[in-house]
Write a structure and sequence with these properties.
Protein name: DUF4283 domain-containing protein
Order of helices and strands: HEEHEEEHEEEH
Distance between the termini: 143 Å
Organism: Solanum tuberosum (Potato)
Shape: rod-shaped
Strand content: 5-15%
Helix content: 40-55%
Strand order of the largest sheet: 1-2
Pfam families: DUF4283 (PF14111)
Radius of gyration: 49 Å
InterPro entries: At4g02000-like, DUF4283
Length: about 230
């Protein structure tokens, strides 16, 4: 991997390649970022429209700074050229065009006479709202693809774990079923034996009662004959 250029070299190449009209201040932020402070609007527009340059074969890209800057995310703002068609001749001056272009994207007062102008954007940068980087399309983002694949694998693993848990529970129920069945059969056998014993005692009692009644009748008949 090539060594990173020194700040002095970066500043010299920056001034040389951008052809600034005013002063500039470069401040180191981290190994991948530095702040560029320009003191006039012309240089600011020139640098942003240039978009990038090379310092000792190392690519250096220019991005708009915002108060919400995060080093791990690239801003979604990027300079673009706007083409206005059919602008009246007397409006081709900075005093008219600058205020006119500054209103693009904002609601204006609906009162008064107006004329609609069509615009075309040139040099629009691809920007991925998922990984927050320039030059990447959302639908073809590698980071998004990896995350979705990891999510899909995780969901499959969770489904397999849930299925294995259900199978284990089913096997446990099958193993426990014979024991429960034996307990049930044992209880039914005890109830059956109790019922049979009760029926046997009932029959014995009825038979003894019949024999007693028969004996009493025989004794009464013998007594009657003697009399």
């Amino acid at each position: 991997m090539a060594a990173e250029p020194l700040m002095e070299t970066i500043k010299e190449q920056f001034i040389l390649q951008t052809e600034l009209k005013g002063g500039v201040k470069l401040t180191h932020y981290n190994p991948k970022h530095l702040y560029i402070n320009l003191n006039n609007e012309y240089d600011h527009a020139t640098v942003l429209s240039k978009a990038k340059m090379y310092v000792e074969s190392q690519l250096m890209r220019f991005l708009v700074w915002t108060p919400t800057f995060k080093p791990e995310e690239e801003t979604h703002l990027a300079p673009v050229w706007v083409i206005l068609g059919e602008v009246p001749w007397h409006c081709y001056c900075a005093e008219v065009l600058n205020p006119l272009l500054s209103t693009i994207g904002y609601d204006e007062d609906e009162n008064g006479e107006r004329k609609w102008l069509s615009i075309q954007y040139e040099g629009v940068h691809d920007y991925c709202n998922y990984c927050k980087h320039h030059g990447r399309d959302y639908n073809a983002c590698e980071v998004k693809g990896r995350d979705e694949e990891a999510k899909r694998v995780k969901e499959q693993e969770e489904k397999m774990n849930n299925k294995n848990s259900e199978d284990d529970q089913a096997n446990k129920s099958i193993k426990e079923q014979p024991l429960e069945q034996r307990e049930h059969n044992k209880k039914m056998d005890e109830e059956t034996r109790t019922q049979e014993q009760w029926q046997t005692q009932k029959r014995k009692g009825w038979k003894n009662n019949q024999q007693t009644q028969q004996t009493q009748k025989t004794q009464q008949a013998q007594q009657y004959n003697r009399d």
